[in-house]
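Notes, Module 5: Reading structure tokens.

Key idea: the token line is not a picture. It is a compressed description, and you learn to read it the same way you learned to read a sequence, by spotting repeated patterns. We will look at two proteins. The first is printed below with its tokens.
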Amino acid sequence: RNSRDAPLLRRDAGRLRGGPALLPARQDQLRGPQWRSPRSRHSTASTLTPHHRTGTTYKVYPSYDFACPIVDSIEGVTHALRTSEFLDRNPQYWWVCDALGIRKPRIYDFSRLNLQYTVLSKRKLQWFVDTGRVTGWNDPRFPTVRGMRRRGLTVEALTAFVLSQGASRSVNLQSWNALWAANRQVIDPVAPRYTGIGTDTAPVTITVTNAEEATLEVPLHRKNPAVGSKQVHIGPNVVIDAADAGELVEGAKVTLMNWGNILVKSVTKDASGAVTAATAEFLPADKDFAKTAKITWLACPATSRVPLLMRSFGHLTTKPSLDESDNFEDYVNEDTIFESHGFGQAAMTAVKVGDIIQLERRGFYYCDAKEGDTLVLHFIPDGKDRQGQVLGR
């Protein structure tokens, strides 16, 4: 009905029997399409869809457009912050306030934050949950606070990132790199450093002929003594990542990080030419580390090593930005979890669930769980758009 002077609400007669229940608003339909028969109130099919908290106690539930102005007004909201997709519905918001004679909050519009290679619609995210493509709303691949926390995002970084965006009304599509770069600035100064060796490819053993069994006390963070220290075992049997074995060349000098330089005496290779073992001499008086290859290593006994399960994650979608005409199901990334195995130094028994650490020369990790003696570590992207951001190496 058209009526500029009668902002009244009326209810159709009849008894509610589980079907649609509408509370039409008597508004001026000539003002625009958003004013034509707005469904200010609707019901759920109570016999088919009970409310998850109240069951079938209530039969009629308010729509968003009807409920928000009333709740905002009676609960004392002074400024209603709404994303710009609700801009053309602001007149309805004020109309409800006027019709009921309640206080009108001020509306502040801003553009929603969009991120590349993901979806932010709750309906679409629910589809990922329902189809079993993720483990739940706290899945590390999800753009939810709980999900991103399990990927190592800090509250401080998230806050700084959001504040840096401002409250513009312009379309806002952000790369994940900016968020993870902000996170690195928070965790880098305080994350303790540990050493981990991968075992998916067999590690290489270096026999250091003149080394003796001993223990060194090494800072957990060379630039931040307040982080503390750790005990590092040294000895004649040193294991390194297979990926670093290429640095072992007869006559070459190599630096074992946090210990010192060694001189490679001999190298053993298999039929394919891959290094399988080496012997070396420790050079205690050589402090020249400027031009040497730096290698992470472990010399602790096998019985004191900490098993590691390292996970990294890919994006939910394969397209950076989905258009309105795109069916998001056509762009779902089906290969999003990557796992690798290894072991860490004995000092990693101190790592707790929820801790953020750095595995030297691998990256930052969030300790997501402990499965028996095994630490489950989630790789934290560092804000650099590279393959290592997915693979964690």
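Here is the second protein, with the sequence above and the tokens below, as before.
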Amino acid sequence: MDSRSGIYSGITRVPISAVAQFGYSVGHILNDLCSSCWFTYLIIYLTEVLRKSKDFAGVLMLVGQVADGLATPLVGIAIDKIGIKIYGKRKTWHLIGTTCVAIAFSFIFHKCFGCEDSSELVQQVYYGAFIVMFQFGWASTQISHLSLIPVLTICRKKIVFLNSVRSGLTFVCGIAVYILMWFLLHEYGSNMEPLGPGDSKAFSYLSLIVIGTGLTFSLLFHLMVRESSDEELSAQVDEQADLLGPKITQRTIRCWLTNKKFYLVGLMYMFTRLAVNVPQVYLPLYLTSSLNLKKESIAYYPLMMLICSVIGSFLTRPLSKYAGKRITYVLGAVLVIGSSFWFQFQPKSNACPTYGATALIGAGSSIMLIMSLSMTADLIGVHTNTGAFVYGSMSLLDKISNGIVIALIQHFHPDHCTPVDCPTARYYRYTMSAIPGGAALLGAVATLVLAIAAARARAQAPDSGSNPGQIQQAEGSNSNSDVISNPVREIENNSQEQ
């Protein structure tokens, strides 16, 4: 066995070079930068800076998430079928998505151009149109980028590595956004507390810098990464089929829809995204409303959370190696649940311990996200012909659920504070406690059900030691090992040398 050729000896897939690994890693930076702005600052920008109603902001967030959710599986199907052949189907859609994101995002964090004094309905249509365009582009870039992993490498250690670096850079992008926001609020924001219309220039500059930086890294991605053609991939799959057994068929969309593990992984991914995104949206409002911190706190507390997320992302590889992916995921969920209790009982009189809660939820959500992506890649395995559909379906549940949850939170938002009572402060405290903790708990349950299903599949697999292909098809995802079977035990040592 030569790990540089793939999982098994004799497979001739070209090894992924260091240049291609770097190029792939930075190919999602534009999306990551925009996502940090979208989830962390859209609600607070619309409600506190533009002074729009809570339902106005909630509806726009829901429109964006629904548009993203509907576009994601459609784009996933299109990526598997349509594209420029000589350039690569996935890279074609990545280019389309990047263009849409850059154009649309330029207008979202700016005042309504030409309609600033128009009715709220007119402005809602204005922002909604650009949000739909942005979300279509974001989905195109995300799914095309994710679905490249099984095309670039079939080594599971490389898959974990690429997902770790990709997710690590996601959080690095968040750190950059929060540092930049901190600086812009200080330099271009108003001198008044709390956050208000005088701070609009800081948000506008933030969006323009994000677009310029993201486009630079997207260019590097397209220059450094080469996507194999369908003919090359088919030849590699045929060669792998000869090694693994007489028959490994590519799965159709119908096959996925009848696969129970497909739905379990989808639920796990959905709960993971809720645990990641809801705190990102409501942490700034929790800080300014529940704890009455100054407006710069919407930059440096999320910064702390993202720093710990980066640390968590680089811990996933050794943790998954020794404990397995599913156990590592559950450990991340435990950290998120612990942070939820901390947010609930954090006293207003001493806000410093809040750093501990943000550290826990940052590290825990990062571990959960990386492991969920790795288990999704394991589910796909060699069935790369419909890989984009799988990622698209996972994201469909993610986007729709996030949009509905955030819209409901906005709709049931209580009235403003009075000198006697402040229901808003309690409301955001409950939001930061119940939703991330509950989502993490449900994600851990889905992961444990997956573990039980995999154990049953291994027990029922006939002659499991003689046909690795049967084991892979029976389990779909084996999170506790880095190889499908052990025809040669030196696989693990060779893979570690990569």
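Summary for the second protein:
- The CA atoms of residues 160 and 317 lie 7 Å apart.
- The radius of gyration is 23 Å.
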